[in-house]
Amino acid sequence: MKAEETTDTHTHVVIFPCPVQGHVSTMLKLAQLLSLHRFHITFITTDCIHHRLHRFGDIQALLQTHPTLQFKTFPDGLPHNHPRSGESLVDLFHSINLHAKPHIKHIVLSAKPTLTCFIGDGVFGALTVDVANEVSIPIIHFRTISASCFWTYFCVPKLFQSNQLPIRGDEDMDRVITCIPGMENVFRCRDLPSFCRGTESDIVFPMNSMAFETRETLRARALILNTFEDLEGSVLSQIRLHFPRVFTIGPLHAQLNSRQDSNPETTPSTNCVWEVDRSCVTWLDSQPLKSVIYVSFGSIATVTREKLLEIWYGLVKSKKRFLWVVRHDMDGGDRVPAELEEGTKERGFIVGWAPQEEVLAHKAVGGFLTHSGWNSTLESLAAGVPMICWPAFGDQHVNSRFVSEVCKVGLDMKDVACDRDIVERMVNDLMGHRREEFLNSAEALALLANQSVSPAGSSYSHLDHLMHYIKSLGQ
Ligand code: UDP
Q1: Nearest to 382 by CA among 454, 437, 463
Q2: Is the ipTM value over 0.90, yes or no?
Q3: Which residues' Cβ are closer than 6 Å to ligand 1?
Q4: How many CB atoms lie within 10 A of CB 139?
């Protein structure tokens, strides 16, 4: 279907992501895609994220390129100097659940032209469905996690019923989980989402728990996932038994690039809430083909100084070239051992925030040491870059298993001590001994990822179907 066939200046969609980098940038990409087809979009975010998007993202370019896109904001209820990352992220979730509803309702009720539908982040499942019901507009949930993780969250109550949960201590961690349909025998206890390491009363019953919020999507009209059919087909067919209308439109960044490329009026913009340091691209330009391991732990995970040093020693001892993102809110400390400074000068480059999609697509990059956030995972898969997965929390444990066991495009470093010798060995495995094996499977998957967003691909046609579906809600 061509862009102009779905062009519609009356369809108005309000989009509300969880106000953290990974969710905001993904849902902003969907906003851009819909606005390329002239849908009106009201993008709701917090004052804090909006301020950071203005400061570090390319918001002026974005608004010029997408005249039917507008932002509306509200306060997140946290003090100005709250870190909004790492463990304190939970405060942000609580605060949004407590304070956001009247703000979102007000924005939705005063929206012009009249709203067609509300695309809400399913991480706030109950909040977004309640808002939509109270103002009588159709609600669609967007989950920015993998289909496998969404499905695992959904199956958690069943895991308790069938005595596969709770996990009975450290010695139980390698027990294989047999009853997640479509993913039988893939996960061990240690690969389940990190919250599964608690008790049933921590996990299933509390409002706002992931298991609870995920089931709220049963009340939504449809579900959007940032994945593609060739990647997660067997799980998607299980999900569709409970959620009949699922649109798989990923990898979204590749879909946006593909549709923007065919639309000469648009210019790419960054959706970053951190200051991008592009000097690393110049550095990469002078490195040999696939010689660099890129290291980044996303926008939220924090790493202690002790672990930072172990990773740093591991990278330097591996003698491989590395590009490392150390965010300014991670404690790098002032005193750096001389051998690390020396090793970094020789073969390394450190920045506070990188243009990650561009970095992963760069010809000099041959591996990625990642925390296994879903966006990072998809960006790496689409670029054909093998991974070492060092998950911290949330869905990352699921993703690291998926990458290593299902896709076979990397190594899983979960639950091993963060130790310089282990980092050195893993980097050498990925970039040395097992390089060909991983590169071959990564390149095969990248081909499928990029086919899915080309005009004959599944994600491309799912996005067209989504646009038709949204339009039908307004009739
Ligand atoms: N990212 C980036 N530059 C960096 C680090 C991360 O642009 O230096 C982007 C990355 O491309 C991804 C997002 O931040 O789109 C992180 O999302 P992800 O789901 O991987 O992890 P989260 O930050 O949510 O834990």
Answers
A1: 454
A2: yes
A3: 21-22, 25, 272, 296, 298-301, 325, 353-354, 356-357, 373-376, 379
A4: 23
